[in-house]
Amino acid sequence: MRAKQFITELADWPYDFKVWSYGDDSTAYEFTTDAGNKYVVDIATLDMDGDRGVKVDFGLLTGETKHQGVTMSSFNSDVTGTGDAARVFSTVRDIVWKSINKSYPPTHHKRKPVKYIVFAGKDADPSRVRLYQRIARNSAKYFPGFQLTSAVQTEVAPDVSGIQWTLTRNNQKP
């Protein structure tokens, strides 16, 4: 699929999703593709100089284990080659947008508005980095009212270098 076509389809056709788990600082969502692949999207709340931000991580669910009665999950955030990237990214974008604008899940209705969206890509995954760069540069299309304010080289996981992008809500209503 060509990059321009992929970007065009990004916001067009998300899968249905549901809240998987939530707490005070994080909400996880899950969705299943037509091929039966389960994905998890984690949206963690960040305090960024007194303003509320969210950090977005997602990946293919690869397993679950029980530890002291608690289900622990693992997911692969690398490019998976499942052939459904446009709908997966469309769903992630839909989850993020609804999460930050609809006080979703409803128990979080008293939180202050999200000012920042943060996401990162590993240097070892150049195709995803290029996609994230396009999404960040076109942030107004996918996240109306937000603009790219930062793209920095950093450690995105222990001993893993990459780029972290920050989108900031401008003063306009979305």
Overview in brief:
By secondary structure, the chain is an alpha+beta fold. The protein has helices at residues 3-9, 85-101, 126-137, 139-142; strands at residues 18-22, 26-32, 38-48, 51-67, 70-76, 114-122, 146-157, 160-169.
Structure description:
The protein has one domain (3-169): Aminopeptidase (3-Layer(aba) Sandwich). The two termini are 30 Å apart. A hairpin with a 2-residue loop joins β7 and β8 (160-169). Strands 1, 2, 3, 4, 5, 6, 7 and 8 form an eight-stranded mixed β-sheet that branches. The protein has 174 residues and is α+β, with helices and mostly antiparallel strands. The chain is built from four helices and eight strands. Residues 65-72 have low confidence and may be disordered. The radius of gyration is 16 Å and the shape is globular. It has helices at 3-9, 85-101, 126-137, 139-142; strands spanning 18-22, 26-32, 38-48, 51-67, 70-76, 114-122, 146-157, 160-169.
**Rounded average pLDDT:** 77
Following the backbone from N to C, one meets helices and strands in this order, namely: HEEEEEHEHHEE
Question: What class, by secondary structure content?
Answer: alpha+beta
Kindly state the number of beta strands.
Answer: 8
Principal-axes shape call: globular
Q: Which fold name corresponds to the CATH topology?
A: Aminopeptidase
Tell me the number of helical segments per DSSP (H or I, 4 or more residues long).
4
Distance between the termini: 30 Å
Task: Determine the fraction of residues in helical runs and give it as a percent range.
Answer: 10-25%
- What characterizes the major β-sheet? 8 strands, mixed
Rounded to an integer, what's the Rg over CA atoms? Answer: 16 Å
CATH level-two architecture: 3-Layer(aba) Sandwich
The CATH class is identified as Alpha Beta
**Approximately what portion of the residues adopt beta-strand conformation?**
35-45%
Tally of separate domains: 1
Uncertain regions spanning at least 5 consecutive residues:
65-72
